[in-house]
Amino acid sequence: MQVRKQAFSSVEIMRFLIPSALGVLFFLVPFPQDGTFNTVLGIVIDWGKEALKPILVVTAMTLVVASAIITIYASLFKPSFIMKSQFFKDLFVVSPLWSISRILGAIFSVMVYYKIGPEAIWSMDTGGTPVLVLAPSLLVIFSVLAAAVSLLTDFGLMEYVGTLARPLMHPLFTLPGRSAIDTLASWLGSSSVGVVITTRLHNEGYYSDREAAIISTSFSILSVAYIYVMADFVGLPNMYFQILITIYAVSFILAILAPRFWPLKGIPDSYSGRSGKQRPEAEIPPDHTLHSWALKTAVERAKREGIHTVIRTCYQTFCFLIVSTMPLVVSWGTIVLIIATYTPIFQWISLPFAYMLELVKIPEAYKVAPAFVLAFADQFLAAVIGATCTTVAAKFMCACISATGLIYMTEIGVLILNSSIPLDFPKLTAIYFMRAVLSVFLLAPFVWLFC
Fold first, then answer.
1. Which spans are transmembrane here (predicted)?
2. Is 362 left (phi over 0), alpha (psi -120 to 50) or beta?
3. How far apart are CA 384 and CA 398, in angstroms?
4. Is 303 helix (H, G, I), strand (E, B) or coil?
5. DSSP conformation class of 36
6. Is the distance from CB of 3 to CB of 290 less than 8 angstroms?
7. Looking at residue 4, what is its pLDDT?
8. Do 382 and 401 meet the contact criterion of CB atoms below 8 Å apart?
9. What distance in Å separates the CA atoms of residue 422 and residue 193, rounded to the nearest whole number?
């Protein structure tokens, strides 16, 4: 069969190549800086933190308070300008748990900034860290990420790499080839977006119950952008590239192992989505090679996008991160640090992890161990623990488990539980702690290598 020649103009190909290359350059290519390596992303963020330092704390506090006020207003009165927009409706009309989290974030921000109430709340050992250190840092990071992430996700790079990866999906992960694009959307774009895509495709019959469960719990990993956030959180922005390599290498191994063990292995290949039927995977046309089909899908995606895409992705990403993530860091970060500082609860629960961490020679093992438990609640809480550690190795472990644990209940867990994917809370808990235990031993060699 003769291979069809691509009928793309040089302009169309450049429309795919240039934004994608800029995204790779911005997020993934390390440059030497002050005796170490940093990415363009990291350099811009460092500059922004220094330039905006005098106003960051007040601005971050104002945004956290504003997000709580708008959430209360939207939930109580449901104004038409919010309800008519699906994006803003999803952003501000949220469950009672998320509303309370945002309200607590606002209260804690004001208490810490003005030192109101008991010192147990506003000291630097507790609320001071998320309010005065983490939230201002996040404000700069989120602003830069929101402006640049579209280059990496919206101009065909995911389609191109995802198509090329199709032949590896079944032998490695027991998944159909079409899942390559879905999984790459999680790895490069957003873990929550990955779960939403998986849920939709499961409902439409593209994935079986087992396939959807594997994808949502093995590939909905923190994106490259969030991994920088975690690295900066713990105080290792200069080691972002090493942390990125480690997280993806360990997550790759876990994605191979997890589908071959209970509970994922025991989920049947039935189709319980809303359609109730299977949609067989479309084969690559015989007049296309794998590469020509990858290029075709990438160029056709890029043809649909433009400056409007960058602007839309920028403001939606920024709003989501500021409204949903920053208040959560302040509220739950403060609560967790109070519990961790004044009670032994997390030390007791995390004691088995402390023994395992000691076994693999990780310093501050008893301080790091709670991160392996807290990451199940929210990935940022592991990074909050890492920010209080003093050794590079301990910080490195906390940054990594925030991603390799993957199933954090504040977002991924809730999305899965609310979906048609047949995973309940006990199964999610079992999958998380299996990943956490394996992560101790899989992360250790990278810690020895890089730290």
1. 12-31, 51-76, 88-114, 134-157, 212-233, 239-258, 318-349, 369-389, 396-417, 429-450
2. beta
3. 8
4. helix
5. E
6. no
7. 56
8. yes
9. 19
Q: What 3-state DSSP class applies to 406? A: coil
| Predicted local confidence at residue 36, as pLDDT | 60
Spatial separation of the C-alpha atoms in residues 275 and 263, rounded to whole Å: 24
Please give the full DSSP string across 228-256, using - where no structure is assigned: HHHHHHTT-GGGHHHHHHHHHHHHHHHHH
d(CA 254, CA 278): 27
Q: What is the pLDDT of residue 140?
A: 87
Rounded to the nearest 10 degrees, the angle between the axes of helix 209-218 and helix 240-257 is: 160
Core vs surface per residue 162-187: b (16+ CB within 10 A) or e: bbbbbeebeeebbbbbbbbbbbbbbb
Residues 6+ apart with CB under 8 A from 232: 42, 45, 137, 141, 240
Q: What six digits make up the tokens of 111?
A: 């208490």
Let me know how many helices (H) and strands (E) the chain has, helices first.
26, 2
Q: Contact at 8 Å (CB) between 291 and 297?
A: no
The CA distance from 152 to 108, in Å, is: 35
DSSP string, 164-217: HTHHHHHHHHS--TTHHHHHHIIIII-HHHHHHHHHHHHHTTSS-HHHHHHHHH
Give the span between the Cα atoms of 418 and 424, in whole angstroms: 10
Q: Which residues are bridge partners to 37 per DSSP?
A: 32
Number of CB atoms found within 10 A of residue 310's CB: 18
CB-based burial of residue 277 (10 Å sphere; 0-12 exposed, 13-18 middle, 19+ buried)?
Answer: exposed
Rounded (5°) CA angle 410-414-415: 120
Structure tokens at 122: 């506003």
- Cis peptide bond prior to 263, omega within 30° of 0: yes
User: Is 201:174 a contact under the CB 8 Å cutoff?
Assistant: no
Position 276 scores a pLDDT of: 65
User: Could you tell me the mean pLDDT of each successive run of 10 residues in the chain, 451 residues long?
Assistant: 63 88 80 69 84 92 95 92 88 87 94 93 87 86 80 78 80 79 62 70 83 87 76 87 92 92 89 70 73 83 82 83 84 83 84 95 93 85 88 95 84 76 91 94 95 84
